[in-house]
User: Which sequence fits this backbone?
């Protein structure tokens, strides 16, 4: 596949993805991406994009202004561990539940 911006060649790379939503910043590190060697345009395959979207939904439960997660540590294979982490930090879990109920 060639870059749709410049026609350059993509290379596989783990790159950070950042988005701001409601003045909060969500940063996902090590997202498997295709990065154009020529112009730096980044694209994601469908599966990676949907996993990243799900991960950001999880990150929204945190109460921080800036939330940083590592893609490779938090996607499907690590899901159980992540849920365990939520239980092990009761305070942030309560906050998450409160904000869900309040919504
Ligand atoms: Zn390009």
Assistant:
């Amino acid at each position: 596949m060639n870059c749709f911006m410049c026609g350059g060649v993509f290379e596989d790379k783990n790159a950070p993805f950042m988005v701001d939503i409601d003045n909060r910043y969500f940063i996902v590190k090590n997202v498997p991406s295709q990065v154009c060697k020529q112009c730096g345009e980044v694209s994601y395959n469908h599966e990676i994009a949907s996993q990243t979207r799900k991960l950001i939904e999880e990150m929204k439960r945190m109460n921080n202004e800036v939330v940083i997660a590592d893609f490779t540590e938090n996607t499907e294979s690590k899901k159980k561990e992540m849920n365990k982490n939520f239980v092990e930090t009761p305070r942030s879990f309560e906050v998450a539940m409160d904000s869900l109920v309040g919504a």
Summary: The longest strand covers residues 24-36.
